[in-house]
Structures are given as C-alpha cells and as structure tokens.
Write a sequence for this structure.
C-alpha cells in the first residue's frame, strides 16, 4: 500500500544551525503517529515542511503519490493536509462559526448548507458549539486552541497535523481532547500529533516517533519508544540519581518505569 | 538572598502563565528551574529580566523591588540573561555580539579576553557573522555576551536547547569557572539530570505552579519524574 | 560628446538622489519604518533656509550650519514623541501616520510660503564649472554634491560598522527584545536613527534647493525619487543607495536627452523594469536587514501568470479535488443524521430597518433632481464619487490588507478613457461603464507589477506607477496634453437635463458599486478576503487562495475608481492630468476611511459623507482644514483605528450591510455577541 505521506531526506538549515538533518519517514492512510522530542529538536519545523510554510533545502515531501515539495500552503490544504499551529492565529474580527466556515468553504470547498452543517458538526466535536457566535478575538487561550483544531477539521483533511494541542489543559480536558482525536481518527483521517503531554499521546497513537537533533531517534510502539534508554536520555539526561526517600512508597499510584 | 520572587503571577493577555510563584536564590548558589514545556519557566526568567511585568507579587533583587525598572536598566544593576534560543544578533559578528553584552558593563573580571579564554573555540570566529555559527558555538557566545556585563546574577534559559549532549556537558563545565568568579546562577533547563548535576537547589514548575522545591542532593528520580510529567503518567 | 556629458550629469544627479534616499533607507533598515514624510521634511529644511536667507541675508551655505542640526533635533523628537508609537505595530499604522504628517507639512508650507517656486543661491560655486577633459565641463556644485553624498554615505557606513551607536542600531533592528536585555534603550536608539535620517534629508533638501527651484508641492517628487533609489539599489545596502541613485540619475538624464519632457518618466520606467526583473534591488545584500518578509521573491513572470490562471481554473480543480476525496473518509454530516437543524442567519442586528432606511434614502435621492437646484445636484455627484473612492480604498486596504497610495491612477484612467471613447463616437452614458471596465482590464498587468512589493513599499510603488501613467498621459496631445481637455460631446445638451442625467447615472453606479462590494463580501470569496484581513497566513493555511483573492480585490478597486473618474468627467465636463492623477485623492480616500472606520462597508460611506461636509464648509479656510485633517488622521490611526462606525458597532452591534453568518440552532445565543475588543486586524496585525 503506498504511503499517504512520504518524507524523504529532508534537510533544513537556519544560518549555521541544521534543524532538520536528513529526516525520512512514512505515514499510511488512517494511521495515527505521535511525535515526541526535546525542545529545539525540529518538530514544529517538520510540520512547517509538511504543511508548506517552509521549503526544505533538500529532500522531498510526497502526498498521496504526488510530489508537493514546491506546492503552496493553500494548495496543500485543499489537497487534504490540515494543521493546527502552536500559537493560535484566529480571525479575530470574525465569529467562531465564521472562522470555521473559512476552512469549510475554502479548504474543503463546500457550499452553503453543506458547509454550515459541516461547521456545526465540527464545533460540536471540539466543544465550541455554545460559543459559535462569539467574536474569536474575545476567546481565552483554551478556546483559541479548540478553534485552531476546529478550523483545521473543517477543511476536511485526510492528514491532520496537531501541534501541541494538549498544553495547558486540565486532566478532564485532556481526556476530552483524546476522545475528539479518537473520533477524528475513526473517520479515517490520518493524524500526526506532536505533544509534550506524553500520556495523552500514548492512549491514542499506534506508533511513536522520537525526534532529536533533527533526526528520527526512535520509531515504533509507543511504550517501547518511551522506555528506550536513548529516548529517556534526551529528555531527562543521564539517569544516575540515587533512589531517594520517596521511592519506597512507590508514589501516589505511580508506576516506576 | 540575592533574588527573591514573592508570590509572583504573570499574564499574557487573558492567559495566566504563572500562579503565585515563590522562589529564593541565595547568593553564590546555583538554582535550577525544571519543568515540561509550557510550564512557565521562561516566563519566570523573562519576569526577572524585566521583559514581563508581574501582574501580582514582586521580584526583589538585592533588597530592592524591581517594579517599574525597565529591562534595559537591569544589566547595570547586575542582572544578565542568556535568552532561550541564544538570540544572537545575526547582523553582528561574534566580537560585536560580545561587545554589545558589555554595553552597560559593571566593573569586574569579564572582558573579551576573559571570554575567549573561557570558550577558546569561539576566539577564532571573532569576525564571523554570528548567524553562521553552529549551535554549540552560538550558545557559548550567548553566555559570553551575558558575562561581559559582569553580572551578579546570571539567568540561563535552556542552554541545552537543540544541542548534542557532549556539547551541553562542555558548556556546563564552563559554568564552574563562571561560578568561581562569584556569579550567582539561576538556570532553566529541560535536561533534568544536567540541571540536577550543577544545581544546589531545584524548583520544578508544572503549568505555572511550583510543584517541587528542594535541595538537589535530596531528590529522587521518582519525585522528579512525578513532578515533571504531572499527575498521571 | 553630448552622450558623455549626459552620462556624467546622470552620475552626478545620482549624488542628489543618494543623499535624499539615505535617511529613508536608514529608517527602514533600523525600524522597518516607511517614512512618507521624508520628502516633505527635505522641503521644510529648504524653506527654512530660504526664510533664514531672506531674514538675515546670510549665504545659503551658512544656513546648513543652523538647519541641519535643528533637523536632527526635530527628527529625534519626532521619533520619540510620535513615531515610536507606531514601531512594532502593523506597518499600516506608520504609513498612515507619516502620510498624515506629510499632508500637514506640505499644507503648512503652502500656507506660509504660498505656492510660488523658490530657490536658494549657491553663490559663485553655483555657476562655476570645472573642466574635466576635452570639451567636457561639469558644474562645480554638482561635483560638490556628489562628494558630499559619498562622504555622508561613508560616514554612515563607518558609523554602522565601527561605532557603538551603529552596533546598537543594528542590534535593535535585528532583535529589539534581546537588545533590551543587553541594556540598550531601544526607544532612544530609534530616535537617534531618525535624527540622523532627518539631518541628512535636510542636507539633501538644501543642496537640491541650490540646484533647482522648489515649491511646497515638490515634496512628493522628492519622496518618489528617494524611494525609487532605495528600491533600485536594494534595501539594506548603504552603497546600494549610491548605486541606485546613480542608476536613477542616469535614467533621468538619458531619458531627458532623448526627449526633454521624459526625464522623470524614464526614471519611473527603469524603476518598474527593476521591479519586474529583480525586486530585491540590484545590489541587495540578502542580509538580515533586507526584510525578507517585505519583498516577494522573484518568481518570474511565467510563474506569476501561471498563478493567475491557476486561480481562474480554481472552480474546475476544486471540483476534481472534491471528487477525488469522495472516496476517502471525511468528516461530514452523514445522511440520515438526526442532529439539530442548522440554521444560519445572514441578517445582522438592525439590518432590516437599516436596509429599509437605506432604500428610502436612495428613493429620496432619486427624486431629488426634481426639486433641488443644480448646485446641490452637482455636489451630490461629487459626494457619490467620494463614497465610491473611499469604499474602493477600503476594499483594498481593509479587506485585502494592501495599502495603496496609487489608486488615483485608475481614477485618472477612467476619466481619460471616457474622454477617448467619447472622442471616438461612443455615447457618454454607455461610455462611463465601459471606461470603468477598460480601466479594470488595464489593472490586470499593473497588478502583476505592483504585487512584487509588499507593505509600505507596495503603497509607494503603486504611487510610482500612478506617476508614470500620469506622465505618459500628460504627454499625449490627443488627450489634451498637460493642460487637459473638455468633454465636448455633451455640449448640445440642455444643462439642467445633462446635470440630472449625470446625477442619475452616478446614483445608479454608486448603488451598484456598494451593492457589488456588499455582494462580494457576502460571498465565499468575501469570506476569504475577510479572513485575509485578519490573518493572511492563517487564511492560506485554511485553503484560501490568497493571491487570487487579493488580485480580485485590486481589480475591483481599480474598476470602481475608474467609474468614479469617468463620472467626475461627465459631471465637471473637463479633465486635466494634474488633478486627475493627483495623489491628494488618495489622501481624501484615507481620511474618509480613517474617520469612518477601516474594514467595514458602512465605515467608508459614513467617513465620506462626513469628510464631504467638512470639505464643503471649511475648504474656504484655505488649507488649514487639510492640516487639521492630517492631524486627525494621525490621531485616528494611532488611537481609534476602527473609526466612528467601529465605535457605533462596539456599542450597539448594528450592521447595515450584514456580511456575517450567525448560527441559530437551539441552545445557541441568537444575539451576536459583542464584537471583538481588538480593533480590525488590518491595523493591528502585520500585513504580509
């Protein structure tokens, strides 16, 4: 089965710093891939290369069999790649509903009734139904993040890129988010999810990628990847602390990995 | 106590980034602030450096409340920061970057020669535009730049960002020389073990709140992991 | 031999331009500030020198010692007290504020010194010439100016690269936040940069004043020359400024050699050629100061044309895309879903009574000619024209995010096209819409040219294009040349009937225009434009064809301005290049939109009505009312960018031209909640 998304040998430099260093990977239709890695590892840059906001210095991006390395952002969106941004950029002079409508009308090419229906459904899915007529500029950060996701979903993507959408959420909210992502996945949408809140990822993704220094460090089963010594090292450094007094009790229901 | 942050909160518009943080930095010691991304660590440093004003509480440096003191007056008081991501000035050479660090220099041992001695590998890049340096070299220049003002308190924001472990080790080794000169260090770090290795005291932030506060020597891996990743795992 | 002389003259002329452009380049390099008052400031210096000479009889050279330092102080204060408020905000703000400043300055000068030309005497040096070789003589003064330019540029280069101040400026330009961390008071650094910029432009103004005669209206030319120099030479390159000046100087002198009236035009054409082939400038460094976010990368004409045809075939492609994706799973309403019925209300609050009210107004206007006198009718047509112009400028700037100072080009083209058509037998009333259409067509190639620039440079670039068109038209004898022409085909008409007919056509057109804008903004393309207004990058990432949408906005604006120009000709019966292509028209458009509010349909209409009233009652007071308007524009741009209508909607949430979508399913708040507390994004967020 041909991959939905294929990244081959991507390189990206900013000045003297190589941010993406020969990264290659594949994603299949309907797959859910999580991406973890320390700050500065190149994760958001990777998303920018996939969505078209940045052009690579070398390498190709292939989507659905077509080479889209030179395609514009809006073209890629209409082809089926949707994404959320770490820093939400709402259309602040428009309402929440209108924000989402832009995605449905332009990204998905829907008209009138179909567009309205699609928007309403997406709003319900992301928990924004009660705020549909609020001006986006008046939303708090949490709702802005929801709006980011709703807008991306409205473009009816075949591949959805989620960039750290769980940050700042309480536990119940994270659970809600995970349910939303599961629902989206059930529609057959392939998802790539960058996240720091690892436990949110591990409950949804079938495969986990750890990126460090612009390269793939580990790729495979989420639990195995998180347990691998190399991955632990990039996050927590060399683990050579003595077990301390708090260890014996096992913590408040914590597992010692 | 050279620095004390007293029940400080910070907002970005409607979003609250810090909730009543209490932090003390004793003179001559090294304090580390760890935490996952989005925990508010950089906001805390930015607040101390003056780029963000506390919406509540206060920041006290050497006994004086820093409220109303703009960021550009703080180096003269003795606060210098190495910002996250290095933030060297791309159209300036390495030497010029260092010179700007010394723009409001206080009297002290740090000057161009001293910095080159500390980081010999950047001396040969003196006249290169700083945009062309590697990550490790750029970080060294950024630290040197902050030292040029001869600070009493050095703020380090995520020195290990995007750098290979061996480079990070070398940079932190230089930290010992810096501390020997009498500089107090407050550092923010993602690499937990590195932070624990150099710090006397550790704070862990989680989503804007301090959830751990203790001497580095007494902490266990479990406690740290628990605080770092949050309630459920 | 004459050619050698021409070339040498051109090079020397480049010295003047380089001297002018230095300050412009500096301010943009350090603060990303496009200073539209740059030319006017040069003029102020020249006029101050004149005043000093007249008052004390001192030599013009001596005035340099007084005026230049004074200019530095003025620049410092200007930046510290006014312009610092615009740094870091949307580029639109600094363009509007400096534009308002330019208007204030030129009108104050006009009032104080009258419109007469002035000159400064350079003394014996002014007429002395130096013998270069064989029969080639050049003016001493020109050589001196060139040397001064080189000296100033060298000094600037030295300062930037060797001194602490220069270092501070470069650092503040790279990263103001981190500069603060280093102890740099960026506000003061910016003020110093402007002080230097204004001092150099004062120097340039006085030198130029010793070279040529000048008047209060010369400021515009100075600005354009300075701007062309910077763009040709390349942003961020100090020596590129000299090179750019030389290229422009050569273009002008060689052009003048070919045809004495064509010097300036040749300069404009060379500028446009550079824009097409190498928009980043001939000698740009590509360094951090070159503002990669400002100039679009060279894409080549074939690619740009491809982009346009891509937009045209958008319909076909999206149909294919949708069909292609039908097979893949999608997030959509399933048939047989029992969810709540989705109702979307397109009506806004108060729009039904508002709409009825508007229709009533139109009805009253339609029957007005039967009762009102000819003067009223005439003025109303002018007001309709103003409403159209303001709406078009708003469409371009408020929705497309493109601030232009060149829409007068299409206004003039509309008028002249009508003249041309009627001269060739076309009926006037048919001619008006036809002229508008033709203007729209001409706007297509213009858009390809103009879109190579962004932000403040787009604003001035469209002005250059307008000037080029103006110069070309004013040379065409068939169209009346520089003195203009009259619309003769209407001379047989009964005046009252003609007036009334013109009025009704104008009314119909303005209703059509507003209606058209309304329909556009209610459509899917309009939704995309509104999204672009708030955040161009986010719009692109949601699939909006940004380039296409902006081009459509540009073409419609051109069409509307063309119609306005044609209507004015039918109303006033005469047209002249100077007034048809006058940049003051854009000033009026900007005033209207600032007063009424940017980014809404109602705003420009209200602004136009208010402005028209102001003009009607106060224009007898000379130019002071323009000064007051300029000041008002500055205040509004900084403090109240959403304008009067913005205030109204903030309080009452009324919308006369509802373009929004309101969800009205059960459990929904059916009231549209309070509009965003942040002002319309085009003045808040960085365009491009």
């Amino acid at each position: 089965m041909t991959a939905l998304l294929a990244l081959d040998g991507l390189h990206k430099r900013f000045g003297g710093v190589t941010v993406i260093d020969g990264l290659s990977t594949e994603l299949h239709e309907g797959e859910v891939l999580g991406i973890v890695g320390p700050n500065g590892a190149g994760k958001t840059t990777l998303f920018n290369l996939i969505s078209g906001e940045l052009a690579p210095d070398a390498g190709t991006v292939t989507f659905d069999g077509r080479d889209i390395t030179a395609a514009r952002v809006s073209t890629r969106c209409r082809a089926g790649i949707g994404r959320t941004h770490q820093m939400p950029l709402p259309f602040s002079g428009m309402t929440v509903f209108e924000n989402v409508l832009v995605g449905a009308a332009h990204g998905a090419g829907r008209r009138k009734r179909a567009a309205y229906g699609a928007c309403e459904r997406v709003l319900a899915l992301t928990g924004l139904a009660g705020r549909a007529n609020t001006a986006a500029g008046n939303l708090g950060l949490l709702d802005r993040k929801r709006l980011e996701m709703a807008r991306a979903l409205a473009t009816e993507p075949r591949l959805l890129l989620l960039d750290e959408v769980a940050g700042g959420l309480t536990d119940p909210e994270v659970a809600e988010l995970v349910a939303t992502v599961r629902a989206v996945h059930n529609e057959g949408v392939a998802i790539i999810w960058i996240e720091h809140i690892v436990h949110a990822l591990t409950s949804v993704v079938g495969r986990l990628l750890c990126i460090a220094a612009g390269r793939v460090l580990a790729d495979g089963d989420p639990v195995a990847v998180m347990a691998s010594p190399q991955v632990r090292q990039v996050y927590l450094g060399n683990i050579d602390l003595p077990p301390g007094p708090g260890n014996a009790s096992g913590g408040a229901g914590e597992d010692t990995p | 106590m050279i620095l004390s942050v007293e029940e400080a909160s910070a907002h970005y518009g409607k979003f609250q980034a810090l909730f009543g943080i209490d932090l003390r930095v004793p003179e001559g010691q090294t304090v580390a602030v760890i935490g996952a991304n989005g925990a508010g660590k950089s906001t805390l440093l930015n607040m101390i450096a003056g780029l963000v004003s506390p919406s509540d509480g206060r920041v006290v440096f050497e006994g004086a409340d820093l409220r109303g003191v703009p960021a550009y007056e703080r180096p003269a008081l003795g606060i210098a920061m190495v910002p996250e991501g290095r933030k060297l000035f791309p159209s300036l050479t390495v030497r010029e970057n260092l010179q700007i660090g010394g723009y409001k220099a206080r009297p002290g041992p740090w000057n161009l020669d001293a910095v080159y001695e500390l980081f010999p590998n950047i001396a040969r890049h003196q006249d290169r535009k700083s945009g062309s340096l590697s990550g490790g070299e750029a970080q060294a220049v950024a630290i040197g730049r902050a030292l040029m003002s001869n600070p009493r308190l050095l703020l380090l924001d995520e020195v290990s960002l995007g750098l290979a472990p061996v480079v990070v080790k070398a940079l932190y080794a230089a930290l010992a020389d810096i501390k020997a000169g009498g500089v107090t260090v407050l550092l923010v770090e993602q690499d937990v073990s590195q932070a624990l290795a150099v710090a006397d005291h550790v704070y862990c932030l989680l989503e804007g709140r301090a959830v751990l506060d203790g001497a580095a020597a007494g902490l266990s891996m479990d406690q740290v992991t628990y605080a770092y990743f949050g309630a459920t795992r | 031999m004459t050619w050698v002389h021409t070339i040498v003259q051109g090079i020397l002329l480049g010295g003047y331009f380089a001297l002018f452009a230095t300050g412009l380049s500096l301010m943009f390099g350090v603060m990303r500030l496009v200073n539209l008052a740059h030319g006017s400031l040069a003029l102020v210096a020249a006029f101050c020198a004149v005043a000093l000479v007249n008052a004390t009889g001192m030599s013009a050279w001596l005035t340099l010692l007084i005026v230049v330092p004074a200019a530095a102080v003025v620049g410092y204060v200007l930046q510290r007290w006014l312009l610092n408020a615009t740094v870091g905000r949307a580029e639109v703000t600094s363009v509007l504020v400096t534009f308002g400043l330019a208007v204030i300055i030129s009108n104050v000068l006009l009032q104080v010194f009258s419109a007469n030309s002035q000159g400064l005497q350079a003394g014996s040096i002014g007429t002395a010439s130096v013998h270069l070789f064989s029969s080639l003589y050049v003016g001493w003064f020109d050589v001196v100016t060139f040397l001064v330019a080189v000296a100033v540029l060298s000094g600037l280069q030295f300062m930037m690269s060797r001194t602490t101040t220069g270092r501070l400026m470069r650092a503040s330009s790279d990263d103001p936040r981190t500069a603060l961390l280093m102890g740099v008071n960026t506000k003061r650094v910016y003020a110093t940069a402007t002080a230097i910029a204004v001092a150099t432009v004062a120097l340039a103004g006085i030198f130029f004043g010793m070279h040529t005669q000048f008047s209060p209206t010369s400021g515009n030319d100075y600005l354009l020359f300075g701007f062309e120099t910077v763009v040709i030479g390349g942003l961020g390159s100090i020596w590129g400024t000299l090179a750019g000046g030389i290229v422009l100087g050569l273009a002008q002198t060689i052009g003048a050699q070919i045809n004495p009236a064509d010097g300036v035009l040749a300069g404009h054409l060379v500028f446009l050629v550079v824009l097409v082939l190498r928009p980043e400038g001939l000698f740009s460094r590509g360094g951090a100061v070159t503002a990669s976010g400002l100039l679009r990368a060279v894409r080549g004409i074939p690619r740009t044309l491809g982009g346009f045809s891509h937009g045209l075939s958008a319909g076909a492609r999206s149909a294919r895309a949708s069909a292609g994706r039908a097979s893949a799973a999608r997030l959509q309403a399933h048939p047989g879903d029992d969810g709540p019925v989705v109702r979307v209300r397109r009506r806004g609050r108060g729009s039904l009574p508002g709409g009825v009210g508007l229709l009533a107004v139109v009805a009253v206007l339609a029957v007005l000619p039967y009762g009102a006198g000819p003067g009223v009718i005439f003025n109303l047509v002018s007001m309709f024209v103003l409403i159209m112009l303001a709406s078009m400028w708003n469409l371009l700037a408020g929705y497309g995010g493109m601030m232009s100072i060149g829409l007068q080009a299409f206004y003039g083209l509309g008028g002249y096209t009508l003249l041309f058509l009627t001269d060739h037998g076309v009926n006037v009333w048919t001619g008006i819409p036809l002229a508008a259409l033709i203007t729209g067509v001409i706007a297509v190639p213009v858009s390809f040219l103009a879109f190579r620039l962004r932000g403040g440079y787009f604003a001035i670039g469209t002005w250059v294009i307008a000037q080029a068109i103006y110069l070309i038209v004013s040379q065409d004898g068939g169209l009346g040349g520089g003195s203009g022409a009259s619309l003769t085909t209407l001379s047989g008409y009964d005046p009252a009937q003609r007036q009334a007919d013109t009025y009704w056509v104008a009314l119909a057109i303005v209703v059509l225009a507003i209606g058209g804008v309304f329909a556009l903004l209610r459509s899917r393309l309009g939704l995309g434009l509104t999204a672009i207004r708030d955040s161009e990058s986010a719009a692109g990432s949601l699939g909006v064809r940004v380039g296409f949408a902006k081009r459509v906005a540009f073409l419609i604006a051109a069409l509307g301005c063309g119609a306005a120009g044609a209507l004015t000709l039918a109303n006033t019966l005469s047209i002249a290049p100077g007034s048809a292509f006058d940049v003051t028209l854009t000033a009026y458009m900007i005033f209207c939109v600032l007063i009424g509010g940017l980014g809404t349909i109602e705003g420009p209409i209200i602004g136009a009505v208010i402005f028209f009233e102001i003009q009607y009652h106060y224009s007898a007071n000379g130019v002071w009312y323009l000064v007051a308007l300029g000041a008002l524009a500055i205040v509004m741009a900084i403090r109240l960018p959403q304008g009067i209508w913005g205030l109204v909607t903030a309080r009452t949430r009324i919308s006369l031209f509802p373009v929004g979508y309101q969800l009205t399913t059960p459990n929904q708040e059916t009231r549209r909640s309070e509009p965003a507390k942040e002002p319309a994004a085009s003045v808040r967020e960085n365009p491009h």
Notes: Residues 286-339, 669-688 of chain C have pLDDT under 50 and may be disordered. The two ends of chain C are 49 Å apart (CA to CA). The beta strands of chain C are 129-133, 136-139, 344-345, 485-486, 574-575, 662-663.
